[in-house]
Design brief:
The complex is a heterotrimer. By secondary structure, chain B is an alpha+beta fold. Chain B has one domain: OB fold (Dihydrolipoamide Acetyltransferase, E2P) (Beta Barrel). Chain B is 18% helix and 35% strand. In chain B, the strands form 2 sheets. A 6-stranded antiparallel β-sheet of chain B has the order 1-2-3-9-8-5. Chain C starts with 8 loop residues before the first helix and ends with a helix. Chain C is globular and about 80 Å long. Chain C has a 7-stranded mixed β-sheet with strand order 2-10-9-8-7-3-4, sandwiched between helices. Chain C has 14 helices and 17 strands. The chains are: A alpha/beta, B alpha+beta, C alpha/beta. At the A-C interface, helix 1, helix 2, helix 3, helix 4 and helix 5 of A face helix 1, helix 2, helix 3, helix 4 and helix 5 of C.
Chain lengths: 504, 125, 443
């Protein structure tokens, strides 16, 4: 059943005259859209489908059978932290009490504001920072917001010459892109052969034009940057701030906090570290935290807990609230419609409450255990460019030469081939061709929610694929064979672009 | 092994200029097209646009990469290779035959700063 | 171990043995001791499912449910029960961006459907699938105008745009180096003459207008597209998505970009999110479009399939050359919208608008009849309108909230005014009850 490709579009199931909704009768006589000037009205009919309820339900249910998620199987996609998404979180996020209009006066939304503040405080303790905003909608949005904080800080001191940001060459692609959107110029700093930042190469880049430096730690190779205290000191001495890309926060939970490493500003991906579902790529949530002294630059509005002394004096005026919304003049401004993806924040709160101080650090440690276990078990078959203990993820540089992985041979079996063959065995592929430091990069992140049995099965399959690569490379080059559909023609998709049903 | 043609001028960013009188035909080298893979789109300027030596004038795109085009010389665009609009893969077939823009050169002395075939061949190794 | 961690003590030991270290802490040996946290995190202890449920249910219960007559970018439309039911299928929700197309046809297909539907509603050629909300989608439209114009950095924005959208655009503009200039309003709509004067200076990359606007008014954009195009500027129209089914579309106005929030297409108000912004454009501008795009192609067996395409535009390839840092594919919300529009179809969308129009106009007229409100604009509106309250508007709003009604949003730019909205979910009884209360409030 699952192997059958469904493939239809809802437009192909449409039949004129069918409908999938029911609405109340119009109780308001004498009003009609036709009272509007014809010039204001749509002339072109829509091509929206016409379908009954069961047709719609079956259509999307069949479609879901062609999809792979964490609930379907192992998803070792590096840098994405595809951990289990607890179902309790879903139930609680859907509570009707949270479905309020964002302009509800604060007095009538105290539960939501309290929840926001609790999450904010918990994240601040986990990060070792002073305060978080939960308004940014995604990791990249958090990066942009965090960089805006950094620029606002410099501008507030009249230090307008700081327009450059240092980014390691191993950084996630969003780092330089966010910096560019924020109006910063990117200065790249090289990595050493062991994959960590070259501190000697960093020194000459520092100067009065540097706004700060973006890093992720552990870095995109899964390696902890042990010289981080020195790097932070150098950047601070030149007047810059340190930005922490929280994409790789998971292994550090409760062990070593970004604030203690010397970072001033960071974002967290709630959909990575704190278990909210990835949803096919979104919606996520990208809270941004800052060190003491930078709170006023966070985006508006902020949720503020009213101090009890103030409450007594002003309880009449403020309507007896514990939490209120506040807008600050020094703030960088608004980055979102309101308080961010609130329903995602509810999910993260359920996760934080469930795990508590006992289990949050354990999540990180077990993710590191799982990653190192796979790494040590597979290094016999796959090229391990940097041989050291990794954190939550690590990178192979393709197959070893004896398994057809010789890059210099034009017929070599590539990382893409291995990735596609993995799909045949019921596993999602790792992140491939990132980071850019290695030609055949294969980035594996197992997360803490996977059992030893699952890892062993994955390891066995990866070894089997390596054997296949040696014996029958063509089997890999034409993979996958047993997925609902086969390899796609990517070139055709770009050269004959078809983005809508109409254009088919 | 990538092809390099004698008599052309080459830039470090892998563009070439073929000079004919007052005009220069600018394209990407065989080495560049090979590195890029299947070219699926070429973003070209319009006729009469000015280009400046060392500055961006367009981009070449493959399925999973995009590479900006830097003009090796300054001048005014007098023609763009319209065939590339429908068949960008011509660049893969023969990068030297399928130039991208034709420019009226404003400063021929700029050519002296570019490499000859031999020097370019050396940097491609 | 904990319920989300499958490791037995034996498993941990065996794995440590394979790695060649003694304890879990040894896996962190390289980290300098002085930056490690040598204490427990100062956060609450673990809680059982029963306790977590109780804590969060109690928080939800601290909120007061209000019958919603507010809009300003977020509308209380009905969500068919099928929509959240389908969206909660975890084959969809626990997947990520569909990088491996062979095992992600479900996600790719519903995104393709979503793109088709949004392109159709806006009257444009293509739609992306990546915007967080309407305000950030409009900011992306602004940056897209600048990227397309190359050498111009001035973008005009109508003062009548929703305040939240304006605020976000201002933030992005400040940091991205966009010279964002607000075009003044006249009688509640954008002053087209003021726009003309600015555009004729030939230094404008684009103009962003809004429909219906921050007062709920329907604006007339006749001639704007030609004016923009004559002066090599782009026209972007921001519209409430639901209204696109009945109002003249951005495509029909001749716009180059359509942007806005699609929350009105069956997405719960959810105290501000998640929503989805839409961003649509013409085919010629596809390479200036940020965000993920799904295209149709064929697989090795010749079957029609779907795949992420035009990736050379995206942040992870362009890195510092990127004009957008969008990484999200707002998948889950695309599914919400696609399922909603599949159920509603053309007729349902008309009916939703018809009912919203009727209830809003009825409410408008009943409020005027109380003698406590006065009209300040005479322009046409769909389901949202602005009236001036003759007393203390803020106090009235709070008093009604105590009684269970959310009457509009305070209109910041117009003293004593409230911008009020209605939808197909509001009944005549609810309206009559609220109007009765207003008659008896002495504020």
């Amino acid at each position: 059943m699952n192997r059958e490709y469904y493939g239809k579009l809802i437009f192909e199931l449409s039949q004129p005259g069918r409908k999938g909704y029911s609405l109340p009768k119009n109780e308001f006589k004498g009003y009609s859209l036709l009272q509007l000037d014809a010039m204001s009205l749509r002339q072109t009919p829509t091509i929206l489908p016409e379908a009954d309820e069961l047709t719609v339900v079956r259509h999307y249910t069949n479609m879901s059978n062609n999809n792979f998620g964490v609930d379907t199987g192992f998803y070792p996609l590096g840098s994405c932290t595809m951990k289990y998404n607890p179902k309790l979180n879903e139930e609680l996020a859907a509570l009707p009490g949270f479905n309020q209009h964002p302009l509800t006066p604060a007095k009538f939304a105290q539960g939501s504001l309290k929840l926001y503040d609790e999450v904010q405080k918990t994240l601040a303790e986990i990060a070792g920072l002073s305060r978080f905003t939960l308004n940014p909608y995604a990791g990249a949005h958090g990066e942009l917001t965090g960089l805006m904080v950094i620029r606002s800080y410099h501008m507030s001191r009249g230090d307008v010459a700081r327009t450059k940001i240092i980014v390691p060459d191993s950084a996630h692609g969003t780092n330089p892109a966010s910096a560019a959107v924020c109006g910063l110029q990117i200065v790249e700093v090289k990595s050493l052969a062991d994959g960590t930042v070259d501190v000697e190469a960093l020194k000459p880049l520092l100067g009065p034009d540097i706004a700060g430096m973006m890093m992720t730690n552990p870095n995109t190779l899964g390696l902890f940057e042990t010289r981080i205290p020195e790097i932070a000191k150098l950047v601070h001495e030149c007047g810059g701030l340190m930005y922490y890309d929280g994409a790789n926060l998971n292994p550090m939970l409760g062990v070593c906090r970004p604030g203690d490493m010397g970072f001033d500003v960071m974002h967290i991906n709630l959909h990575k570290t704190f278990s909210t579902p990835h949803g096919g790529g979104g919606p996520g949530s990208g809270p941004v935290g800052v060190r003491k002294g930078l709170e006023q630059f966070l985006p508006n509005p902020q949720v503020i807990k009213v101090e009890s002394s103030k409450l007594k004096v002003e309880n009449l005026a403020s309507g007896e609230v514990d939490y209120e919304l506040s807008c600050k003049d020094e703030s960088l401004g608004y980055v979102s419609f309101f308080l961010g993806n609130f329903a995602i924040i509810v999910r993260a709160y359920a996760y934080l409450l469930s795990l508590g101080k006992e289990n949050i650090p354990m999540a990180g440690k077990l993710s590191v255990l799982n990653a190192n276990y796979i790494k040590e078990s597979l290094r016999s078959h796959y090229k391990l460019p940097i041989d050291t203990v990794c954190k939550h993820e690590f990178v192979f540089d393709g197959l070893r030469e004896e398994y057809g992985g010789d890059h210099h041979s034009p017929e070599h079996v590539t990382t893409l081939d291995v990735a596609k063959r993995l799909l045949d065995y019921g596993f999602h592929a790792p992140t491939i061709y990132f980071p850019l430091l290695f030609h055949e990069a294969m980035m594996i992140e197992p997360t803490e929610t996977e059992s030893k049995e699952t890892l062993d099965a994955f390891i066995a399959v990866m070894k089997r694929i390596a054997e296949e690569a040696k014996a029958d490379p063509e089997l890999l080059k034409s993979a996958p064979h047993s997925t609902p559909v086969r390899r796609m023609d990517d070139v055709k998709a770009v050269k004959e672009p078809k983005f809508t049903f109409k254009s088919l | 092994m990538a092809k390099v043609i004698e008599g052309l001028y080459y830039a470090e960013s892998h563009e070439y200029v073929r000079v004919e009188g007052e005009f220069g035909y600018i394209g990407i080298t065989d080495y560049a097209q090979d590195q890029l893979g299947n070219v699926v789109y070429v973003d070209m300027p319009e006729v009469d646009d000015e280009v400046t030596a060392g500055e961006e004038f367009g981009a070449v795109e493959s399925v999973k990469a995009a590479s900006d085009l830097f003009s090796p010389v300054s001048g005014t665009v007098v023609e763009v290779n319209e065939a590339l609009e429908d068949e960008p893969e011509l660049i893969n077939k023969d990068a030297f035959e399928n130039w991208i823009i034709k420019v009226e050169l404003s400063d021929k002395s700029e050519l002296d700063k570019l490499m000859d075939a031999k020097a370019y061949e050396a940097i491609c190794k | 171990m904990y319920k989300y961690f499958p490791h037995t003590a034996d498993d941990v030991q065996q794995m440590l043995d394979v790695i060649g270290v003694r304890t879990l802490d040894d896996l962190y040996a390289e980290i300098p001791e002085e930056i490690k946290l040598h204490r427990e995190l100062d956060i609450p202890s673990e809680k059982s499912e029963i306790e977590v449920r109780r804590i969060i249910q109690d928080l939800a219960a601290m909120n007061k449910p209000l019958t919603c007559f507010a809009g300003a970018g977020c509308y209380d439309h009905y969500t068919p029960s099928v929509v959240p039911f389908l969206a909660s299928r975890s084959e969809f929700s626990t997947s990520y961006t569909p990088y491996q197309a062979e095992i992600s046809q479900g996600t790719l297909q519903y995104i393709f459907e979503y793109q088709t539907m949004m392109a159709d509603l806006t009257g444009m050629d293509i739609s992306n699938a990546s915007m967080y909300d309407g305000s950030t989608a409009t900011a992306e439209a602004m940056m897209m105008c600048m990227a397309a114009a190359k050498k111009r950095n001035r973008v005009l924005i109508s003062e009548t745009i929703q305040p939240a959208v304006m605020a976000v655009c201002k933030t992005y503009a400040k940091f991205h180096g966009v010279d964002l200039v607000a075009v003044s309003e006249k009688n509640g709509v954008m002053d087209k003459e003021a726009a003309r004067e600015l555009i004729e200076k030939d230094d404008v990359a684009g103009l962003i207008v809004c429909q219906p606007n921050r007062y709920g008014l329907i604006e007339d954009f006749t001639g704007l597209a030609d004016l923009c195009h004559e002066h090599k500027a782009l026209l972007a129209v921001n519209t409430v998505a639901s209204a696109l089914a009945v109002l003249k579309t951005p495509g029909e106005w001749g716009a180059d970009i359509a942007c806005g929030d699609a929350q009105s297409l069956g997405i719960p108000m959810g105290y501000g999110g998640p929503y989805i912004g839409y961003l649509c454009t013409k085919e010629a501008l596809v390479r200036k479009m940020p965000g993920r795009l799904v295209g149709a192609t064929t697989d090795a067996d010749g079957r029609r399939t779907f795949v992420l395409t035009m990736q050379a535009r995206e942040q992870h390839i362009r890195r510092e050359k990127a004009t957008s840092n969008i990484c999200t594919a707002q998948g889950f919300m695309c599914l919400y919208v696609a399922a909603y529009l599949s159920l509603m179809g053309p007729e349902g969308m008309k009916e939703v608008n018809e009912l919203s129009y009727a209830s809003a106009h009825y409410l408008h007229d009943e409020l005027l009849k109380t003698g406590r409100f006065e009209e300040i604009f005479d322009g046409p509106y769909l389901n949202e309108f602005t009236l001036r309250y003759k007393g203390d508007a803020k106090a009235l709003r709070m008093a009604l909230a105590e009684e269970g009604y959310l009457l509009g949003a305070p209109t910041l730019f117009c003293d004593g005014c409230l911008t009020i909205a209605s939808t197909e979910q509001r009944t005549r009884q609810e309206i009559d009850n609220m109007v009765e209360l207003i008659k008896n409030v002495a504020l």
